[in-house]
Design brief:
There is one protein chain. The protein is mostly helical. It has a single domain, classed as TerB-like (Orthogonal Bundle). Helices cover about 75% and strands about 0% of the residues. It starts with a helix and ends in a 10-residue tail after the last helix. This is Co-chaperone DjlA N-terminal domain-containing protein.
Length: about 160
């Protein structure tokens, strides 16, 4: 993961001008996106709706341009394929995100899970596993699921998910 991050910075940002905080922010973006990509692939299919949910969620949460978001997702996709488990990503999120931010990650996972209007039992298990690794309480895990389901059932599109502030 570190090599991909280094390449990202060498290509986009001068390392001499990048504060450590920016580096950490980009690492968190990659870790979050990698978890979302794992979620999208849990049912062994790559649905465009799920990847659109990843793109929209990363762009919203981290306030990135569409181009920056696409680059983060591309890097995270490679990192997700190289990862042996979810711990390296959840550890970073646990160290840097407060509880509310972790709940937002769980909401993003639900957005990806429900983007194709189908929830496979393995997808639900993965959201549960990641929520547990992030130390998100069960009530907040369920609340995030219901919030996303309501938004989806109201609009019919997760891209219309404006209750995410």
């Amino acid at each position: 993961m570190i090599e991909a991050i280094k390449r990202f910075y060498e290509q986009r940002i001068s390392p001499a001008q990048t504060p450590a905080e920016d580096t950490l922010q980009h690492r968190l973006q990659l870790a979050t996106a990698a978890l979302l990509i794992e979620m999208a692939q849990e049912d062994n299919q790559r649905h465009s709706m799920e990847f659109q949910a990843i793109h929209d969620g990363i762009m919203e949460v981290f306030d990135l341009s569409p181009e920056e978001t696409a680059e983060v997702i591309e890097l995270a996709d490679r990192e997700a394929h190289e990862a042996t488990d979810h711990f390296e990503f959840t550890r970073m999120i646990n160290e840097q995100f407060d509880y509310e931010q972790k709940c937002r990650v769980v909401e993003l996972l639900w957005r990806v899970c429900l983007a194709d209007a189908e929830m496979d039992r393995y997808e639900e298990q993965l959201v549960r596993k990641i929520a547990e690794l992030l130390h998100v309480e069960h009530k907040d895990f369920i609340s995030a699921k219901l919030k996303v389901q309501r938004a989806y059932s109201t609009s019919g599109h997760l891209s219309d998910y404006d209750d995410y502030e």
